[in-house]
């Protein structure tokens, strides 16, 4: 039997969980859904939408290797803040860095 979260779980934590679930389901199902819609549209009176999309995809195929295109609305989305809070990460140094050592920042 499935046990749901108790009512005492804060709303903020529930939103964090929903943002992660949204990303997981998008990652697992969105590509397959888009392919099915793309192929399905080829056999309807809206076939030209698939042809237009395929043409754009062909002409734009080098864009990922050129850095892609940033969409600021998506980059500033609240979903990423909730996801960041769901996976809290903080750097932990075993010892302080020495001044003579070369350091790389990523």
Automatic annotation (TrEMBL):
GO terms for molecular function: 2-acylglycerol O-acyltransferase activity; diacylglycerol O-acyltransferase activity. The keyword Lipid metabolism applies. GO terms for biological process: diacylglycerol biosynthetic process; triglyceride biosynthetic process. This is Monoacylglycerol O-acyltransferase 2. PANTHER family: 2-ACYLGLYCEROL O-ACYLTRANSFERASE 2, DIACYLGLYCEROL O-ACYLTRANSFERASE. One of its GO terms (cellular component) is endoplasmic reticulum membrane. The chain crosses the membrane at residues 20-43. It is found in: Endoplasmic reticulum membrane. It is a multi-pass membrane protein. Belongs to the diacylglycerol acyltransferase family. It comes from the Eukaryota. Pfam families: DAGAT. It comes from Pipistrellus kuhlii. Keywords: Acyltransferase, Endoplasmic reticulum, Lipid biosynthesis, Lipid metabolism, Membrane, Transferase, Transmembrane, Transmembrane helix.
